Amino acid sequence: MSTVLDIENLSIDVKTKKQNFNIIKGIDLKIGKKMKYGIVGESGSGKSLTSLAIMNLLPDVLNISEGSITLKTENEKDLTALTKRQMQHVRGNEISMIFQEPMTALDPLYTIEHQLLEVLRFHTKLSKKEMRDLGLEMLEKVGISRGKEIFKSYPHQLSGGMRQRVMIAMALICKPKLLIADEPTTALDVTIQAQILDLMNDLSETNDTSILMITHDLGVILETCERVAVMYAGQVVEETTVRELFKNPKHPYTQGLLESIKTLGDRGKSLYSIPGNVPTPPQYQEMGCRFATRCPYAMDICKTKEPDMIEVEHDHKSKCWLHVEEDAVHE
Ligand SMILES: Nc1ncnc2c1ncn2[C@@H]1O[C@H](COP(=O)(O)OP(=O)(O)OP(=O)(O)O)[C@@H](O)[C@H]1O
Fold it and tell me: Which residue ranges run through the membrane (predicted)?
Protein backbone atom coordinates (compact mmCIF):
# COMPACT_ATOMS: atom_id res chain seq x y z
CA MET A 1 0.00 0.00 0.00
CA SER A 2 1.39 3.42 -0.82
CA THR A 3 1.00 6.04 1.86
CA VAL A 4 -0.35 9.59 1.40
CA LEU A 5 0.07 10.85 4.94
CA ASP A 6 2.48 9.47 7.50
CA ILE A 7 2.23 10.78 11.05
CA GLU A 8 5.07 9.60 13.27
CA ASN A 9 5.27 10.02 17.02
CA LEU A 10 3.31 13.29 17.01
CA SER A 11 3.14 15.11 20.34
CA ILE A 12 1.51 18.47 21.02
CA ASP A 13 2.08 20.59 24.14
CA VAL A 14 0.45 23.70 25.58
CA LYS A 15 3.09 26.30 26.21
CA THR A 16 2.27 29.63 27.81
CA LYS A 17 3.88 31.63 30.62
CA LYS A 18 1.47 30.00 33.07
CA GLN A 19 1.02 26.53 31.58
CA ASN A 20 3.31 23.93 30.12
CA PHE A 21 2.02 20.42 29.66
CA ASN A 22 1.43 17.70 27.12
CA ILE A 23 -1.94 17.25 25.33
CA ILE A 24 -1.33 14.84 22.43
CA LYS A 25 1.30 12.13 22.81
CA GLY A 26 3.02 9.72 20.42
CA ILE A 27 0.46 9.54 17.62
CA ASP A 28 1.41 7.18 14.75
CA LEU A 29 -0.93 7.00 11.74
CA LYS A 30 -0.43 5.95 8.14
CA ILE A 31 -3.13 6.87 5.66
CA GLY A 32 -2.93 4.97 2.38
CA LYS A 33 -3.67 6.23 -1.11
CA LYS A 34 -7.46 6.31 -1.70
CA MET A 35 -7.96 5.00 1.84
CA LYS A 36 -10.84 6.07 4.06
CA TYR A 37 -9.36 6.32 7.53
CA GLY A 38 -11.29 7.13 10.69
CA ILE A 39 -10.27 8.65 14.00
CA VAL A 40 -12.89 8.03 16.68
CA GLY A 41 -13.00 9.21 20.28
CA GLU A 42 -15.05 11.09 22.84
CA SER A 43 -15.04 14.86 23.18
CA GLY A 44 -11.64 16.01 24.43
CA SER A 45 -9.73 12.98 23.15
CA GLY A 46 -7.64 15.12 20.79
CA LYS A 47 -9.21 14.33 17.40
CA SER A 48 -9.58 17.95 16.32
CA LEU A 49 -6.11 19.00 17.46
CA THR A 50 -4.62 16.15 15.44
CA SER A 51 -6.41 17.36 12.31
CA LEU A 52 -5.50 21.00 12.98
CA ALA A 53 -1.86 19.94 13.36
CA ILE A 54 -2.00 18.31 9.91
CA MET A 55 -3.41 21.53 8.43
CA ASN A 56 -0.84 23.63 10.33
CA LEU A 57 -3.70 25.52 11.97
CA LEU A 58 -2.94 24.93 15.65
CA PRO A 59 -3.60 27.94 17.89
CA ASP A 60 -0.45 29.82 18.92
CA VAL A 61 -0.40 28.49 22.49
CA LEU A 62 -0.08 24.92 21.23
CA ASN A 63 3.04 23.59 19.63
CA ILE A 64 4.29 20.36 18.14
CA SER A 65 6.95 19.21 20.57
CA GLU A 66 7.88 15.99 18.80
CA GLY A 67 7.25 13.99 15.65
CA SER A 68 6.63 14.52 11.96
CA ILE A 69 3.68 14.70 9.56
CA THR A 70 4.83 13.70 6.09
CA LEU A 71 2.70 14.34 3.05
CA LYS A 72 3.86 11.81 0.48
CA THR A 73 2.75 13.38 -2.78
CA GLU A 74 5.04 14.12 -5.78
CA ASN A 75 7.47 16.11 -3.67
CA GLU A 76 7.40 14.59 -0.22
CA LYS A 77 7.38 17.10 2.65
CA ASP A 78 7.21 17.27 6.44
CA LEU A 79 4.24 19.57 7.07
CA THR A 80 5.50 20.50 10.51
CA ALA A 81 8.56 22.12 8.92
CA LEU A 82 6.73 24.27 6.34
CA THR A 83 6.39 28.05 6.60
CA LYS A 84 2.93 29.63 6.69
CA ARG A 85 3.28 30.59 3.02
CA GLN A 86 4.38 27.11 1.91
CA MET A 87 1.51 25.62 3.85
CA GLN A 88 -0.99 27.87 2.06
CA HIS A 89 -0.08 26.09 -1.16
CA VAL A 90 -0.73 22.72 0.42
CA ARG A 91 -4.08 23.70 1.95
CA GLY A 92 -6.98 23.60 -0.48
CA ASN A 93 -4.75 22.10 -3.13
CA GLU A 94 -3.17 18.93 -1.72
CA ILE A 95 -5.11 18.71 1.55
CA SER A 96 -8.59 20.12 2.21
CA MET A 97 -10.74 20.12 5.28
CA ILE A 98 -14.45 20.23 5.91
CA PHE A 99 -15.77 21.24 9.30
CA GLN A 100 -18.79 20.31 11.38
CA GLU A 101 -20.38 23.72 11.02
CA PRO A 102 -19.95 25.14 7.51
CA MET A 103 -20.73 28.67 8.75
CA THR A 104 -17.31 28.73 10.44
CA ALA A 105 -15.63 28.09 7.10
CA LEU A 106 -17.92 30.14 4.87
CA ASP A 107 -17.70 33.93 4.95
CA PRO A 108 -21.15 35.50 5.45
CA LEU A 109 -20.12 38.57 3.44
CA TYR A 110 -19.33 36.88 0.13
CA THR A 111 -21.46 35.02 -2.42
CA ILE A 112 -21.08 31.28 -2.91
CA GLU A 113 -19.57 31.93 -6.36
CA HIS A 114 -16.89 34.17 -4.92
CA GLN A 115 -15.96 31.67 -2.22
CA LEU A 116 -16.11 28.55 -4.35
CA LEU A 117 -13.91 30.06 -7.04
CA GLU A 118 -11.46 31.60 -4.54
CA VAL A 119 -9.63 28.26 -4.24
CA LEU A 120 -9.24 28.11 -8.01
CA ARG A 121 -8.04 31.74 -8.19
CA PHE A 122 -5.36 30.94 -5.63
CA HIS A 123 -4.20 27.57 -6.90
CA THR A 124 -4.77 27.58 -10.69
CA LYS A 125 -4.29 29.79 -13.74
CA LEU A 126 -7.72 29.07 -15.22
CA SER A 127 -9.65 31.81 -17.05
CA LYS A 128 -12.76 33.34 -15.46
CA LYS A 129 -15.06 31.31 -17.69
CA GLU A 130 -13.17 28.06 -17.01
CA MET A 131 -13.40 28.68 -13.28
CA ARG A 132 -17.14 29.40 -13.49
CA ASP A 133 -17.76 26.26 -15.55
CA LEU A 134 -15.72 24.13 -13.16
CA GLY A 135 -17.57 25.68 -10.19
CA LEU A 136 -20.96 24.87 -11.70
CA GLU A 137 -19.81 21.35 -12.59
CA MET A 138 -18.64 20.83 -9.02
CA LEU A 139 -21.97 22.05 -7.60
CA GLU A 140 -23.74 19.63 -9.94
CA LYS A 141 -21.53 16.82 -8.59
CA VAL A 142 -22.51 17.59 -5.02
CA GLY A 143 -26.16 17.40 -6.03
CA ILE A 144 -26.89 21.12 -6.49
CA SER A 145 -28.58 21.51 -9.85
CA ARG A 146 -29.59 25.18 -9.63
CA GLY A 147 -25.93 26.15 -9.61
CA LYS A 148 -26.30 29.57 -11.25
CA GLU A 149 -28.90 30.60 -8.69
CA ILE A 150 -26.83 29.25 -5.78
CA PHE A 151 -23.78 31.12 -7.10
CA LYS A 152 -25.55 34.41 -6.32
CA SER A 153 -26.62 33.35 -2.82
CA TYR A 154 -24.97 34.17 0.49
CA PRO A 155 -24.28 31.34 3.00
CA HIS A 156 -27.13 32.33 5.37
CA GLN A 157 -29.64 31.95 2.54
CA LEU A 158 -28.89 28.22 2.26
CA SER A 159 -30.01 25.31 4.45
CA GLY A 160 -27.46 23.45 6.60
CA GLY A 161 -27.36 20.52 4.16
CA MET A 162 -26.83 22.86 1.19
CA ARG A 163 -24.03 24.69 3.00
CA GLN A 164 -22.33 21.38 3.76
CA ARG A 165 -22.60 20.42 0.07
CA VAL A 166 -21.06 23.75 -0.94
CA MET A 167 -18.23 23.19 1.52
CA ILE A 168 -17.59 19.72 0.09
CA ALA A 169 -17.54 21.24 -3.40
CA MET A 170 -15.03 23.86 -2.20
CA ALA A 171 -12.88 21.22 -0.53
CA LEU A 172 -12.75 18.95 -3.56
CA ILE A 173 -12.62 21.41 -6.44
CA CYS A 174 -8.81 21.21 -6.69
CA LYS A 175 -8.84 17.40 -6.41
CA PRO A 176 -6.79 17.19 -3.19
CA LYS A 177 -4.90 14.04 -2.27
CA LEU A 178 -6.37 14.09 1.22
CA LEU A 179 -9.70 15.33 2.57
CA ILE A 180 -10.01 15.79 6.32
CA ALA A 181 -13.64 15.68 7.42
CA ASP A 182 -14.13 16.77 11.05
CA GLU A 183 -17.60 15.63 12.19
CA PRO A 184 -18.98 16.50 8.74
CA THR A 185 -22.52 15.31 9.45
CA THR A 186 -23.01 15.91 13.18
CA ALA A 187 -24.90 19.18 12.68
CA LEU A 188 -27.16 17.75 10.00
CA ASP A 189 -30.53 16.05 9.95
CA VAL A 190 -30.33 12.25 10.08
CA THR A 191 -31.83 11.93 6.58
CA ILE A 192 -29.25 14.33 5.09
CA GLN A 193 -26.35 12.69 6.99
CA ALA A 194 -26.37 9.51 4.92
CA GLN A 195 -26.57 11.50 1.66
CA ILE A 196 -23.56 13.62 2.59
CA LEU A 197 -21.48 10.58 3.62
CA ASP A 198 -22.37 8.81 0.35
CA LEU A 199 -21.48 11.92 -1.58
CA MET A 200 -18.05 12.20 0.04
CA ASN A 201 -17.47 8.53 -0.66
CA ASP A 202 -18.38 8.81 -4.35
CA LEU A 203 -16.30 11.93 -4.90
CA SER A 204 -13.26 10.48 -3.19
CA GLU A 205 -13.52 7.38 -5.41
CA THR A 206 -13.70 9.38 -8.63
CA ASN A 207 -10.91 11.81 -7.62
CA ASP A 208 -8.63 9.26 -5.90
CA THR A 209 -8.82 11.35 -2.72
CA SER A 210 -8.02 9.72 0.62
CA ILE A 211 -10.35 10.66 3.47
CA LEU A 212 -9.50 11.19 7.12
CA MET A 213 -12.84 11.02 8.92
CA ILE A 214 -12.88 12.51 12.43
CA THR A 215 -15.89 11.59 14.51
CA HIS A 216 -17.22 10.59 17.92
CA ASP A 217 -19.66 8.25 16.16
CA LEU A 218 -18.58 4.64 15.59
CA GLY A 219 -21.59 4.24 13.28
CA VAL A 220 -20.11 6.80 10.87
CA ILE A 221 -16.78 4.94 10.95
CA LEU A 222 -18.50 1.64 10.20
CA GLU A 223 -20.35 3.15 7.26
CA THR A 224 -17.45 4.99 5.68
CA CYS A 225 -13.99 3.81 6.71
CA GLU A 226 -11.61 0.93 6.08
CA ARG A 227 -9.17 1.55 8.94
CA VAL A 228 -9.62 3.23 12.28
CA ALA A 229 -7.63 4.69 15.16
CA VAL A 230 -9.40 4.96 18.51
CA MET A 231 -8.23 8.01 20.47
CA TYR A 232 -8.45 8.47 24.21
CA ALA A 233 -7.08 11.39 26.24
CA GLY A 234 -4.61 12.51 23.57
CA GLN A 235 -3.32 9.10 22.55
CA VAL A 236 -4.22 6.40 20.05
CA VAL A 237 -5.17 3.34 22.12
CA GLU A 238 -6.17 0.93 19.33
CA GLU A 239 -5.53 0.80 15.58
CA THR A 240 -6.67 -1.75 13.01
CA THR A 241 -9.15 -2.34 10.17
CA VAL A 242 -12.76 -1.34 10.86
CA ARG A 243 -13.97 -4.89 10.32
CA GLU A 244 -11.46 -6.25 12.87
CA LEU A 245 -12.24 -3.51 15.42
CA PHE A 246 -15.94 -4.35 15.42
CA LYS A 247 -15.35 -8.11 15.45
CA ASN A 248 -12.51 -8.30 17.87
CA PRO A 249 -11.97 -5.11 19.95
CA LYS A 250 -8.92 -5.47 22.21
CA HIS A 251 -8.69 -2.30 24.28
CA PRO A 252 -11.12 -2.01 27.23
CA TYR A 253 -11.99 1.54 26.09
CA THR A 254 -12.97 0.34 22.61
CA GLN A 255 -14.94 -2.51 24.17
CA GLY A 256 -16.85 0.08 26.23
CA LEU A 257 -17.53 2.25 23.19
CA LEU A 258 -18.86 -0.73 21.24
CA GLU A 259 -20.97 -1.82 24.19
CA SER A 260 -22.57 1.63 24.26
CA ILE A 261 -23.62 1.48 20.60
CA LYS A 262 -24.86 -2.10 20.93
CA THR A 263 -27.25 -0.99 23.66
CA LEU A 264 -28.82 1.92 21.78
CA GLY A 265 -32.37 2.29 23.02
CA ASP A 266 -35.50 3.09 21.05
CA ARG A 267 -34.76 6.77 20.79
CA GLY A 268 -31.12 6.34 19.79
CA LYS A 269 -30.08 6.88 23.41
CA SER A 270 -27.38 4.63 24.77
CA LEU A 271 -28.39 2.40 27.69
CA TYR A 272 -24.76 1.79 28.57
CA SER A 273 -22.10 4.44 28.81
CA ILE A 274 -18.57 4.15 30.14
CA PRO A 275 -18.65 5.45 33.73
CA GLY A 276 -16.61 8.58 34.49
CA ASN A 277 -15.14 11.25 32.23
CA VAL A 278 -12.10 11.65 30.00
CA PRO A 279 -9.40 13.19 32.22
CA THR A 280 -8.27 16.71 31.29
CA PRO A 281 -4.67 17.25 30.12
CA PRO A 282 -3.42 18.60 33.50
CA GLN A 283 -4.86 15.46 35.14
CA TYR A 284 -3.27 12.96 32.81
CA GLN A 285 0.30 14.19 33.18
CA GLU A 286 0.79 11.99 36.24
CA MET A 287 -1.22 8.98 35.08
CA GLY A 288 0.23 5.65 33.85
CA CYS A 289 -2.47 4.47 31.47
CA ARG A 290 -4.78 7.42 30.82
CA PHE A 291 -7.83 5.09 30.83
CA ALA A 292 -6.97 3.48 34.19
CA THR A 293 -9.46 5.56 36.20
CA ARG A 294 -12.39 4.27 34.11
CA CYS A 295 -11.17 0.80 33.21
CA PRO A 296 -13.01 -2.19 34.70
CA TYR A 297 -9.81 -4.28 34.48
CA ALA A 298 -7.34 -1.74 35.90
CA MET A 299 -4.36 -3.29 37.74
CA ASP A 300 -1.84 -1.57 39.98
CA ILE A 301 0.68 -1.11 37.18
CA CYS A 302 -1.93 0.71 35.04
CA LYS A 303 -2.04 3.58 37.53
CA THR A 304 1.68 4.22 37.48
CA LYS A 305 3.21 3.05 34.20
CA GLU A 306 2.19 3.78 30.63
CA PRO A 307 1.68 0.66 28.47
CA ASP A 308 3.27 0.40 25.00
CA MET A 309 1.28 0.10 21.81
CA ILE A 310 1.54 -3.63 21.09
CA GLU A 311 0.74 -5.61 17.94
CA VAL A 312 -1.71 -8.03 19.57
CA GLU A 313 -2.67 -9.70 16.33
CA HIS A 314 -1.60 -9.29 12.72
CA ASP A 315 -2.35 -5.68 11.68
CA HIS A 316 -4.01 -4.93 15.01
CA LYS A 317 -2.42 -2.77 17.72
CA SER A 318 -3.63 -1.95 21.21
CA LYS A 319 -2.13 0.01 24.10
CA CYS A 320 -2.96 -1.92 27.24
CA TRP A 321 -1.19 -3.82 30.03
CA LEU A 322 -3.67 -6.70 29.63
CA HIS A 323 -1.79 -7.75 26.49
CA VAL A 324 1.47 -8.12 28.35
CA GLU A 325 2.35 -11.49 29.90
CA GLU A 326 1.65 -11.49 33.62
CA ASP A 327 5.30 -12.24 34.46
CA ALA A 328 6.45 -9.21 32.52
CA VAL A 329 3.88 -6.95 34.22
CA HIS A 330 5.14 -7.90 37.67
CA GLU A 331 8.84 -7.77 36.82
N1 LIG B 1 -5.95 26.16 22.98
C2 LIG B 1 -5.95 25.20 23.89
N3 LIG B 1 -5.31 25.36 25.08
C4 LIG B 1 -5.30 24.39 26.00
N5 LIG B 1 -5.89 23.20 25.85
C6 LIG B 1 -6.55 22.95 24.71
C7 LIG B 1 -6.61 23.93 23.66
N8 LIG B 1 -7.34 23.39 22.63
C9 LIG B 1 -7.71 22.17 23.04
N10 LIG B 1 -7.23 21.89 24.27
C11 LIG B 1 -7.44 20.64 25.02
O12 LIG B 1 -6.94 19.56 24.26
C13 LIG B 1 -7.73 18.39 24.43
C14 LIG B 1 -8.10 17.83 23.08
O15 LIG B 1 -9.00 18.73 22.42
P16 LIG B 1 -9.66 18.42 21.00
O17 LIG B 1 -10.46 19.62 20.62
O18 LIG B 1 -8.65 17.97 20.02
O19 LIG B 1 -10.62 17.20 21.34
P20 LIG B 1 -11.70 16.52 20.41
O21 LIG B 1 -11.51 15.06 20.58
O22 LIG B 1 -11.63 17.04 19.04
O23 LIG B 1 -13.04 16.96 21.10
P24 LIG B 1 -14.38 17.55 20.42
O25 LIG B 1 -15.01 16.37 19.76
O26 LIG B 1 -15.15 18.07 21.58
O27 LIG B 1 -13.95 18.61 19.45
C28 LIG B 1 -8.91 18.80 25.28
O29 LIG B 1 -8.67 18.37 26.60
C30 LIG B 1 -8.91 20.31 25.21
O31 LIG B 1 -9.39 20.86 26.41
Answer: none
